[in-house]
Specification:
about 170 residues, mainly alpha, 7 helices, globular, binds fe (ii) ion
């Protein structure tokens, strides 16, 4: 049976996937409102994992889970892709990071969420409540500076994501 922790996080990923699909429903353009909801929700999701789930898992195992280093590098790439104004290329790069990332977290055998769920019930409940209480962080305005794009190139290379990297803001039209 799926644990409440695994179910909560997986459902949140489904919700975020639906927002991204909504934001890209019209080819060639990005829907501002659904993308903003996706961006805020994804930053919150990453925050829950980095601040609550990964540390809880480390306490449980006595050492970091073997997948955490890679997931952390993916989070860096995701966060950097959320900085500039979204374009179709940025969205496709985000998907290239998110698809294997979410699969690794959700895998039934050896997945991170499954590992995090193997804990005493009272403790699992406290972790779930703490995650539910996490608010969306305030969103910074998009930043299309050269430094923001250099950061994307850096984090995508560090995460070893094989996908074209946006090198600057989309031109007019
Ligand atoms: Fe994650």
């Amino acid at each position: 049976m799926t644990s409440p922790i695994a179910a909560y996080l997986a459902e949140d990923q489904v919700r975020l996937g639906a927002l991204l699909a909504q934001a890209t429903a019209v080819a060639g353009r990005i829907g501002e409102a659904p993308f903003s909801a996706f961006r805020g929700g994804l930053l919150r999701h990453i925050g829950m994992e980095e601040k609550l789930l990964f540390p809880a898992l480390k306490r449980l195992l006595g050492a970091p889970h073997p997948a955490v280093a890679r997931l952390h590098r993916d989070h860096g790439a995701i966060a950097s892709l959320l900085v500039p104004t979204p374009t179709p290329l940025i969205v496709s790069a985000l998907r290239a990071v998110l698809e294997p990332h979410d699969a690794l977290e959700e895998a039934v055998d050896g997945g991170l969420y499954a590992a995090a769920s193997r804990r005493p019930a009272a403790e699992a409940e406290a972790l779930l409540e703490a995650m539910k209480a996490v608010r969306e962080p305030p969103q910074s305005p998009h930043n299309d500076s050269p430094a923001a794009f250099r950061q994307i190139a850096h984090t995508m290379a560090a995460a070893n994501i094989d996908h074209p990297v946006p090198t600057g803001p989309a031109g007019p039209g």
